[in-house]
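Replying to the earlier thread about multi-chain prediction with a worked example.

Input:
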Amino acid sequence: MIMQKILFIEDESALQKMFGDALFQEGYEVVSALDGEIGLRLAKEKQPDLILLDLIIPKYHGLEVLEKLKSDESTSEIPVVVLTNSEDMTDVQKALELGATTFLLKASYDLDDVLDKIKQTLNELE
Amino acid sequence: MKMGRTFRSLFRECDQYNIPLMQCPQFLFVIMGTLIVATMISIYALGTQFFSDPYLIVMVVCGITAILFIMSFVITRSFERLAEANRLKSEFVSIVSHQLRAPLSNLGWAIDFVMSGRAGRVQKEQTAYFQILKENSSRMQELVNDLLSVSRIEQGTFPFEKKPFSMTELVNDVVEEYRSLVRAANIDLKVNTQGKGMVNSDPQKIRQVISNLLDNAIKYAWKDDEENRHNRRVKMSVIERKKDVRFEIEDSGVGIPERDQKHIFQKFFRSGSVQQHDTQGSGLGLYIAKSIIEKADGRIGFESEESKGSKFWFVLPVKNK
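Result:
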């Protein structure tokens, strides 16, 4: 069985490790990127099934990464789940306008809730 | 053109800090100055009719005008400084809260991760301690969220997105969410609704208000006497009226002493009657609730008697058809 691949673009290594382990245990392959530039490169190279994207990351702002992903033919179809602490309404609106599938506020979700949302998004695509 | 621009830029700061025009120091200074000059001209005009030496009157009037002008300038300057200090305080709270938020959510997730057994088997004795960690990190998160809401309310950046929704449905949703807590607290909860209660407001924010009021009602629905131990009641109602929809929540709890009633919606205020039993809580919930209802063009209030219980209510204008 082929494992579904998730690209996690997040600059906090503690979160990378925790989500990496949790998603791996749920049966997903996780590819990590600590900044926007690496994230964009890995999205093209690895062609993940889903991208989990933080907004406050080095090199590029998350919204710029999202815009570039959606404007590139090779990555435009990949669903992007935004997972961030930014509660700015303009960020939420912009992210959804740019084509993000869901916008999750870190403080409002338990770990299991986030994992459920990821599973749900991937299941809807199948 | 240039004068118009200067005039508008004079009040831009007040606009930026969300201070109403009638409380804007610069605007008040202009009004006070105009009034002082007009009054002095009138006094001079009247004085010249009754006194023989107009030069003396000119000197006196100019002297008083100058003193009053300086005084009003000093007063408005101190207002400005107070407003600036308040703004800096709100910004400080906002920055600190934002910086606390990320590590707190990471902490909460890490605890979830360990407790779920994903990092290895957790022993029974350890679970209780992880539970303590989880509860305390949740409490800190709630406090940070409340502080952020307060700072946004004060800066005028509290997001509020209006859309039509049914108050009855919203109340039923909240009740469902609290069902297990209500059962655990052995509370007899009754919900009485009349009509759909359609309003045009921010459902997320109104949900926050209802949750807060229900949370308080559950927390304080008990009394000390043994007789009432099994008689804890909370009653919620949605009443559709001609021009508005009224929400009520009544408890049979500790009530609010009369001396505390006028402070109950103030920031960080906690009534003496609740502090005797519950030392937790920031005293921000009702302040936030009031701010939300006011932002929704509604009204909020309460009736309460110590040891008998409280009834909190709010009204929201009906959705225009």
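The longest strand of chain B covers residues 309-317.

Feel free to reuse this layout for your own posts.
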